[in-house]
Amino acid sequence: MNLFAKDAVVKFLAQGSDDVIDKFKVNDWLGVLATNPNGRIIKVIVEEGVFDSNNKIKILKVREIYKQGE
Fold first, then answer.
1. Which of 5, 23, 37, 59 could form a disulfide with 50 if both were Cys (CB 3.0 to 4.6 A apart)?
2. Are 30 and 44 in contact (CB under 8 A)?
3. Strand pairing partners for 60?
4. CA gap 31, 65 in Å, rounded
5. Which pLDDT score is estimated for 1?
6. pLDDT (tens digit, 0 to 9) for every residue of the chain, 70 residues total?
7. How far apart, in whole angstroms, are the C-alpha atoms of residue 31 and residue 29?
């Protein structure tokens, strides 16, 4: 079962505000999460979701928490 609409996007929120700082197509973002280069991403917080008329996720607003410099 596919949870996402065909044209779904992920919008990234800044760490200290609700400003959108970047966006990706959902398939691209899921690829980054799956590989998680250098283990950088340690947590993803979903702040908001928007659904289309078929109850598929169309927009996902997230805040990623990153590992601090080594």
1. 59
2. no
3. 10, 49
4. 17
5. 57
6. 589 999 999 999 998 889 999 999 999 999 988 998 788 888 999 999 999 999 999 999 999 988 886 5
7. 5
Do residues 62 and 44 touch, judged by C-beta distance below 8 A?
A: yes
Distance CA 2, CA 70 (A): 37
pLDDT at position 45 is 94
| Interatomic CA distance for residues 12 and 64, integer angstroms | 7
Task: Give the DSSP letter of residue 2.
Answer: -
Neighbours of 11 (CB within 10 A): 16
Residues in the chain: 70
Which residue matches tokens 């590992």?
67
